[in-house]
Write a structure and sequence with these properties.
Length: 233
């Protein structure tokens, strides 16, 4: 199972590179894997900071959720593969997933597909022009398409992990946010599970942001989560 630290992805949901650098420094070797999303990635110096993390020996999940015409996604994934990041997200449209897989070919970059954003319910999907149907059915359809195209994994709520794993099989990545250690504030997350529960449901990697970067002692918070993960048999 390797080092459990490598299965905890710490979300750097911070507005500036300076704050992110300080968080990474305080977490020290308790953190090996970081997620950079829109807020930090598009902040001044964001892309250079991603490179700084990689050069400092950290793994990076670049959560850019790409979606564009195939040619553009392919070129973008190729450019991002050269940054040395470990994971990149794209929206789970078949054309987009195929393009990202073509763009990263020959590199060690892994492509994760985002099936249906968890902020979308059926009414949001209908408003966006989809036929009525449950978001869960669309998650399942897109997970199966991602599997057939060969994407490396799926991002989903931990509560969906078992269903997604049944579709993907044992060898793909299942990356789940919405994790809260027992007793932590839920914040705006509505469907939360504990780190241990998420692993039992089939998650291979957990994304945790506020309970670590917002903690008085972020290093200790990260260590406590890794300890809880390591206790799962
Ligand atoms: O602070 P918290 O641990 O809730 O942060 C979770 C991270 O995972 C945030 O970066 C959030 O944007 C991301 N995320 C999420 N739910 C999804 C997809 C991504 O919380 N469905």
């Amino acid at each position: 199972m390797g080092d459990m630290r490598d299965r905890l992805i710490i979300g750097l949901d911070l507005p500036t590179v300076e704050q992110a650098r300080e968080a990474v420094s305080r977490i020290g070797d308790a953190g090996t894997f970081y997620k950079v999303g829109y807020q930090l990635g598009y902040a001044p110096g964001g892309f250079d900071f991603v490179k700084e993390l990689v050069d400092g020996g950290k793994k990076v999940f670049f959560d850019l959720k790409l979606h564009d015409i195939g040619n553009t996604v392919e070129a973008g994934a190729r450019a991002i593969s050269r940054l040395g990041v470990t994971l990149l997200t794209v929206h789970a449209y078949p054309q987009t997933m195929r393009a990202a897989m073509a763009g990263k070919a020959g590199s060690s970059l892994k492509i994760l597909a985002v099936t249906v954003l968890t902020s979308y319910d059926e009414a949001d999907l209908v408003e966006a022009g989809y036929a009525a149907g449950s978001p869960a059915a669309l998650v399942a359809r897109r997970a199966a398409q991602g599997r057939d195209i060969g994407v490396d994994g799926i991002v989903c709520a931990a509560t969906e992990a078992a269903d997604v794993k049944a579709i993907l099989g044992p060898d793909r990545l299942i990356v789940t946010p919405g994790i809260r250690p027992a007793g932590a504030e839920a914040g705006d997350q509505k469907r939360i599970v504990t780190p241990a529960e998420a692993l039992r449901l089939g998650a291979t990697h957990l994304v945790v942001a506020r309970p670590i970067v917002g903690a008085a002692d972020p290093r200790r918070a990260a260590e406590a989560i890794v300890d809880e993960m390591a206790g799962v048999s």
